[in-house]
Structure formats: structure tokens, C-alpha cells
Known about the structure:
CATH class of the largest domain: Alpha Beta
Helix content: 25-40%
Mean pLDDT: 97
Distance between the termini: 25 Å
CATH architecture of the largest domain: Alpha-Beta Barrel
Low-confidence stretches: none
Number of strands: 19
Number of helices: 13
Shape: elongated
Largest sheet: 9 strands, mixed
Amino acid sequence: MPRPISATVHAEALRQNLARMRRATPDARVWGIVKANAYGHGIERVFEGLRAADGFALLDLQEAERVRALGWRGAILLLEGVFETRDLELCSRLNLWHVVHCDDQIDMLAIHKTHQPHRVFLKMNSGMNRLGFAPARFRAAWTRLQALPQVDEISLMTHFSDADGERGIAHQLRAFHEVTHDLPGERSLANSAAALRHGDDAAVRADWIRPGIGVYGSAPDYPEHDISHWGLQPTLTLASRIIGVQQLAPGDTVGYGSSFTADGPLRIGVVACGYADGYPRHCTTGTPVLVDGVHGRLVGRGSMDMLTVDLTPVPEAQIGSAVTLWGHGPKGAVLPIDEVARAAGTVAYELMCAVAARVPFNTSE
């Protein structure tokens, strides 16, 4: 039989999380963000769960081709725009909208031969300092695009750097509106955190929201709020089983480096999951886990193919017992991915995207 580890994508959770974002931002349209292979879930596996989105947003042309191959005829947005002039040919053929964030991309459009003008999203760098035109240069970029016969409608966008933190969004919102208040075109500003925390503000939700991590069942401002606070559900479960049991005596150690020492008799279970499956090696003693739906903890240092868990809370556990590394467990138990990510010193995005190719995926309703 195959090794007992699997990842499950929950389509109904995707639907409900998407609907939750709509309720938070009345009247705004919603992009289904499927960059990074749908945050590690797989574009083909999330498509039905996100079909109610108003459009799909992603990074590269291959991902766009996959979405079109699934039968999607609506809007698709390239979030980083094109990388070379010939990419615009495929944009024309697939009817892709694309972000324009630098002069080079305007230059590419200016020499592109097309019978169908392009819908573009002109991006402002309002403080994130990644992609986009600085506020002082934004209107000049808009004027250049407006003059091109290759360009049809121009939408306006920016990206918040601190929507989930203390600094907030006011400084970026002000910079954006000072420059764009009298320009035509639809707007897109809000990510998951801005949508959930400020979606009642029409200036924030604007015309399109771009919720990523919230749709995939992670709280965008964790640990201030968890998914239950926002009414979100896990969309990805990583599960395995116990493949071995050891009885430790006081003073016995566990795993490489002997980083855990038993201070009394202890029964531990060995789980078929390790960093080669994408589970973070930085998760050590105390990282939460579910065994047969009961909350427990990892002990010792994880290795390439195995983890060890304390079976004290589940004395009846044995070889074959179900282990939930994150997501939905037996008996209605849930282990939010945010709790595991925090123990690893990272964020849920990274865990979702890191699940290894050797882990078999399936989908459930």
C-alpha cells in the first residue's frame, strides 16, 4: 500500500471563504487569486470551489492557459504583467488583462501589433516599494497609456503593505487617492486583510478586491485574529498516520540532536511525514498536531520522512491512528494552519506552497 500521507483540498471551504469575502465587501467584485499554483492547492483542484469569482488573477502565462483550458471565459489578470514583448501576443489571443507597473511594459505595448486593444491595470507604488509607479510619476504613466491605440480601458491599483498590522492602510490610501481622485477607471486595492478589516469603507473595497490567503483558510492578521473570528474554514488538510510506537523511560531522548528528553515515562508515535513532504523542519517540540482528532504536540526534531508526537492525550492511539498536521481532523476537530506556521516561525502561505510533489493530493466537497 502507498505511504499513508495525503493532502486534501476542500472545495466547499473555498466556496464559503469566497462568499465570506463578498459579504465583507458589498458590491465589490472578487478576484480568485490562483498564483503559485493556487497557493500550492493546484489550479485544477480549486477551480470548482472558486468558480463563483468574478475573475482569476495569477502571475504567468502558463497558469493563464490552464485556467482557460478549464473552460473559464471571464476575466483573467496577470498580476505582474508581461515580462517581454512577445507575451503580449498571448495576452491578445487569450484575452488576458495585465498589470502595468513600469515604463518598460508601456514600451512593449507601444510596439505591440494587435487588432484588439488591451485592458490594463496601472499599478501605483503607494508605499509597498515593490512594483509600481511612484505617486509623482503615476499620472505621466497614465497619460502615456491613454495615448496608445493598443490600450483600451485603464484600471488603477495599488497594494497594501500593512493592512494586517498596526501601521494600517491610511498612509497608502491617502497617497493613492491624492493622485487618482479625478482619473477614470475601476480601482483595485484591497487584499484579504484590508477586505476583512476595512471592507465597509467604499474607498478601500473599491471595484475589485484581491483576497488571497483569506480565501485559502488562513487569518490574514493572525495571531491578532484567527480563522474562527473571521468565519473562515481550512481549505487544505495535510494528514498522515502513526507508523510506529515507542515507550520512553525518563531520560530517554528523541530524534536527531537529542533535542527532547523525557522527564518521565512517555509513549510516542512516529508519523509518516517529514520535511521532504514539505512539513517545516523548524517545527519542534510543542508544535500542535491532532491524533485521532485530539490536540497534542510534536516532540523532538522532525526528520526527512518522520515526525514524533506525544501520545499522552490519546493513550488508545496505536499504529494506524490518524494524524492531522493541519486542517480538518476526525470528529470535527480542526487544526488551523496558522498555528503550525507560527510554531515554524513562518506564515501559512509558505506551508501551503511547500507541500512536496511526492504527497498525493485529492479533493473533497
